[in-house]
Amino acid sequence: xxxxxxxxxxxxxxxxxxxxxxxxxxxxxxxxxxxxxxxxxxxxxxxxxxxxxxxxxxxxxxxxxxxxxxxxxxxxxxxxxxxxxxxxxxxxxxxxxxxxxxxxxxxxxxxxxxxxxxxxxxxxxxxxxxxxxxxxxxxxxxxxxxxxxxxxxxxxxxxxxxxxxxxxxxxxxxxxxxxxxxxxxxxxxxxxxxxxxxxxxxxxxxxxxxxxxxxxxxxxxxxxxxxxxxxxxxxxxxxxxxxxxxxxxxxxxxxxxxxxxxxxxxxxxxxxxxxxxxxxxxxxxxxxxxxxxxxxxxxxxxxxxxxxxxxxxxxxxxxxxxxxxxxxxxxxxxxxxxxxxxxxxxxxxxxxxxxxxxxxxxxxxxxxxxxxxxxxxxxxxxxxxxxxxxxxxxxxxxxxxxxxxxxxxxxxxxxxxxxxxxxxxxxxxxxxxxxxxxxxxxxxxxxxxxxxxxxxxxxxxxxxxxxxxxxxxxxxxxxxxxxxxxxxxxxxxxxxxxxxxxxxxxxxxxxxxxxxxxxxxxxxxxxxxxxxxxxxxxxxxxxxxxxxxxxxxxxx
Length: 556
Fold this sequence. Notes:
It is a single chain. This protein is an alpha/beta fold. The chain has four domains: 5-74 and 310-429, inorganic pyrophosphatase (n-terminal core), CATH 3.90.1640; 78-131 and 256-305, Roll (CBS-domain); 143-251, Udp-n-acetylmuramoylalanyl-d-glutamate--2,6- Diaminopimelate Ligase, Chain: A, domain 1, CATH 3.40.1390; 438-553, Diaminopimelate Epimerase, Chain A, domain 1 (Roll). The protein has 19 helices and 23 strands. The strands form six sheets. The chain has a six-stranded parallel beta sheet with strand order 3-2-1-16-17-18. The chain is elongated, with a radius of gyration of 37 Å.
């Protein structure tokens, strides 16, 4: 059976407990509701660092952190890779050419015994070896193994060592009479000749390194003896002189013609949008692919970019591009499960989209377990419960619905935990804010929203200690101002929420931020700070009011 296609189930950037727990739980549900013949393998992922609160939950119910997914863009491994094996550099040009014809490839990778890439040879390189080369010594310059000559010429070695190489002299044809040829043959030359005893003897006495006897002519014992004494190799082939002369260059090792410097290679995890420009600028037909250890895998060409398979994705707990994993626009989104307002996400094809006005995505997933008659395991129930308690602030948030409370009650029974005690331990684990840097606090739960081209950033941190929040507010003000400038935000807000008192300190930066907060919440901003009673939910109490005021101001 073919390998199943991987589908990443992932929440938003800077993930909270709901984002992580819902991704794990929904991946479990999907994997347990498909038949064996279905083609998907659902894998939970995360688009950012796990918070201390979430890590407590994962440890409590014995789960590892989901796989980190920074970018969902297509990679080389998503392309159709031509898995043409590499060849050893000492094979003959003839064998390389035959192999390329058999495999129907234009580029051949030369690899060593450990499959490390040594170089590349193209059909053009082989053609040039014939058309551009007039040096009669090229065969020895290439250090041509005798094994290659024996195989290419279908020859027999009468005298010599087949493991040696022809590495000196030039190639010459003994076409004239022996007296004339004696003037041309030099020491170490490779002489192609026929069955004439005088020519064979003359070549040996002249110091030839090798003689190739054509037409299968027998070689006398005397000639063999003389060859051994003078260190001359004798080969016998049934081919005629013309054929031998034509094929002798094809005996050369292919690594003599390979390109070995400044090779342009790609790795399996390279993003296609990054390598695309490089591929278009270089006039190469094929590009070699290496694995993590640098070993050769295969090749890709420019046309493979057109058939690249988009990576499959399911979004949970968000539906906005600004909050999604990088390159989400280039992914194949299959589903969206969310409880937030509809955002800016667009898809090429229709998708399964489920969005409900509940306090937590985990509540929707709890419903889907019931709808599909799938039993909820104890540890999955713990994750779903934790997500609901976190997102609804233990049912104190105005986003909390009766359905959230019903789900939490049932899940607590399955997980065999007390909701209040578990929530207290969970929030305590996540409230170690004094030891964190402003950057860690800021990006723990930060989201951006696009309102008609206006980019608004809203972060939030929760605690059960007001003195802790007051101290954090002092540290966060200069950092928020810096992020407002560096990130190019039009408006920047940061909520410091007291879970127990159900109050929030709102830090505000941006042109007209104070006026916006006054119009939306009826409170004044002093020193970039506003105190808001009974405001705990970014999703239901803050974002809708801010968007409403902004859109109201744009009315005609």
